[in-house]
Amino acid sequence: MFFVLLLAISLSIDALGIGLSYGIRNIGTPFFTKCILFLETMFFMGLFLWIGNRMTFFLKAETANNIGIALLFMMGFFLFYQSFRHSSTELLQNPCYCDKDNSSHIDAKEGLSLGLLLSIDSMGAGIGAGAANISYYLPLVTSIFQILFLSIGISYGKHLKNCLSIKDNIWTAFSGCILILIAVIRYFY
Fold first, then answer.
1. How far apart are CA 30 and CA 109, in angstroms?
2. Reduced to 3 DSSP states, what percent helix, strand and coil does the chain have, rounded to the nearest 5?
3. What are the φ and ψ backbone dihedral angles of 105, each rounded to 5 degrees?
4. 85: pLDDT confidence band, cut at 50, 70 and 90?
5. Torsions phi, psi of 66, nearest 5?
6. Do 172 and 79 meet the contact criterion of CB atoms below 8 Å apart?
7. Which of 187, 175, 124 is nearest to 16 (CA)?
8. What is the model's pTM?
9. Which residues, 6+ apart, have CB-to-CB distance to 164 below 8 Å?
10. Dihedral of CA 96/99/101/103: which sign?
11. What's the rounded Cα separation, in Å, for the pair 25 and 4?
């Protein structure tokens, strides 16, 4: 369960950063949109785990586990690397593009885009987790943390908007470091 919590937190750190970004810009997410995000995260994370777990049918369990660990490590390194790239056109670097109608809230349709963004961001880690036989509680726990961190981020972002400037890439780098840590621990565990 420790790895599930650590992985879910890592996969949800971006949601905290996005929430802070939304809060600073006074963009809100209604309850219905959060429900869509929750279900979409559960679906995609479950799919990624299933794909990773199917790898064990074609490979020895130890080989699949090592591939899963390698995927977690590479995804962590990729996120860490991406955090230092400067691209204002990518949704990952500027999640406010999800608010396409500039309404200052993320409606259901825009919520699907945000959910897809957060899910694609965790695809490699989810497949790696499935191959490494990390628990099937991961989709539920990740969905809970995604919504929790997004809500906390929005709330604190509203309070911080006049105090300091937070770079979105810090959360991506932190998320990558946690994935690398999980991979290293799984390798020696």
1. 12
2. 75, 0, 25
3. -150, 150
4. confident
5. -65, -40
6. yes
7. 175
8. 0.70
9. none
10. negative
11. 32
